[in-house]
């Protein structure tokens, strides 16, 4: 698990200019956001422990960005961990799964704000995630 602090972020646009990304604030104000990083390999500079093979491998070119199912009202990255671990064993890319806030305590648009914030944080922290993020796949259930 990684805790993303509520700090200002910027993300590059296609034309090279930076866009400021707002800290999620709707309904409950700023708070840390939890994400789960899964990988079968410990990659260079990656945070956390390896899920399998312990030798360091080069960063992956890919990243799987995962938002769990539950319609923004139920479940978590942990409730989807069984299939995410299988994916991590079979895919050559780390998986970042977002634990967004759930309604009704955190109504729309809070979960959407957090998913965008986590994505932009990932783009700014690719080294910690063990990826170059040249290719990103969005997944969910």
Describe the overall structure.
This protein has about 140 residues and is of the alpha/beta class. It is about 20% helix and about 35% strand. The chain has a five-stranded mixed β-sheet. The chain has a two-stranded antiparallel sheet with strand order 2-3. The protein is globular.
Topology, element by element:
Layout: E1 2-4, E2 9-12, E3 18-21, E4 33-38, E5 41-43, E6 53-57, E7 60-67, H1 81-90, E8 95-99, H2 110-124, H3 126-129, E9 131-140
Parallel strand pairs: 5-6, 7-8, 7-9
Antiparallel strand pairs: 1-4, 2-3, 4-8
**E-strand count:** 9
Count of DSSP-assigned helices: 3
**Helix-strand topology string:** EEEEEEEHEHHE
C-alpha-based Rg, rounded:
15 Å
Q: Helical percent range? A: 10-25%
Largest sheet: 5 strands, mixed
Structural class: alpha/beta
Distance between the ends = 20 Å
Sheet-strand content, in percent, reads 25-35%
How are the strands of the largest sheet arranged? 1-4-8-7-9
Task: Assign an overall shape.
Answer: globular
Oligomer: single chain
> What does the average pLDDT come to?
92
Q: Which spans of ≥5 residues are poorly predicted at pLDDT below 50?
A: none
Write a brief caption for the model.
By secondary structure, the chain is α/β, with parallel strands linked by helices. It has 3 helices and 9 strands.
């Amino acid at each position: 698990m990684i805790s993303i602090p509520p700090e200002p972020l910027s993300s590059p646009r296609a034309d090279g200019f930076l866009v400021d990304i707002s800290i999620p604030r709707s309904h409950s104000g700023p708070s840390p956001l939890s994400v789960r990083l899964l990988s079968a390999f410990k990659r260079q500079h990656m945070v956390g422990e390896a899920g399998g093979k312990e030798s360091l491998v080069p960063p992956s070119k890919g990243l799987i960005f995962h938002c769990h199912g539950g319609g923004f009202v139920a479940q978590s990255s942990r409730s989807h961990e069984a299939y995410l671990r299988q994916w991590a064993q079979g895919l050559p890319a780390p998986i970042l799964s977002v634990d967004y806030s759930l309604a009704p305590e955190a109504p729309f648009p809070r979960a959407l704000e957090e998913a965008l914030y986590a994505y932009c944080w990932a783009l700014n922290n690719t080294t910690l995630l063990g990826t170059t993020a040249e290719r990103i796949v969005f997944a969910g259930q």
